[in-house]
Amino acid sequence: MVDVEFDQGLAVLTIDRPHARNAIALETMEQLEKALDAAEGASALVITGAGDRAFVSGGDLKELSSLRSEADAAAMARRMRTICDRLAGFPAPVIAALNGHALGGGAEVAVAADIRVAADDIKIGFNQVALEIMPAWGGAERLAALIGRGKALLLAGSGTVLDAAEAARIGLVDVVLPRSLFDEGWRSLARSLANRPAAEIKRVISGVSADEAIASFARLWVADAHWQAAERVTKRSTNPR
Q1: What is the DSSP string of 105-136?
Q2: Phi/psi of residue 77, each to 5°?
Q3: Which of 43, 49, 220, 221 could form a disulfide with 55 if both were Cys (CB 3.0 to 4.6 A apart)?
Q4: Which terms does the record give in the GO molecular function aspect (predicted)?
Q5: CA distances from 189 to 45, 184, 215, 217, 226 (A)
Q6: Domain-by-domain residue ranges, the chain?
Q7: Segment 95-149, tens digit of pLDDT
């Protein structure tokens, strides 16, 4: 199942399939679609897995083994790719909280997010080649955009699985937290993004014209929230403790 939680403008989607290490089946896809519908309007979005063993362990091989024709395989890949596209295109910041290993399709879900926060004991890898297949949910293209074409081909082509520190070193993971601080850490980060104009910043860095970027700034400048914040900053600077 996919749980949806709302917390101070933050929507948290949790894939909770402990019997399958949070692997994705067709029913999971349907639940993810509904969860994304429910999350519309959130100021930030987190996707994570239940427990501490797996973020998403890929596609559920047992459940998906009935797909034997090219047409059925293509339909499944297209559906999940559309879900990952929705994550990537969500208007507000999207954080993948890697509570456990992100392997195969799980790594594809992770790179659909804007930011990846990982517990320090997790592993991540595009290891679909172990099954003699390839990433099909948009992950290969997103991986190349993150770390470069050559490194992406090397990792996905060899099926190399990285630990959190190495993934952070090459830019695949953005933040690594000690396991003991992980839950508090990702939630604090996500709340900070939800409570600031990060959605406008995401829109600008995703690619808009200079005029659109300036218009976004101007809208924020005249908003009450800006003047209230400016007043707080002014008071602190004139009344230091």
Answers
A1: HHHHHHHHSSEEEEETT-EEE--GGGGT----
A2: -65, -40
A3: 49
A4: enoyl-CoA hydratase activity
A5: 11, 9, 27, 23, 21
A6: 2-193, 208-238
A7: 999 999 999 999 999 999 999 999 999 999 999 999 999 999 999 999 999 999 9
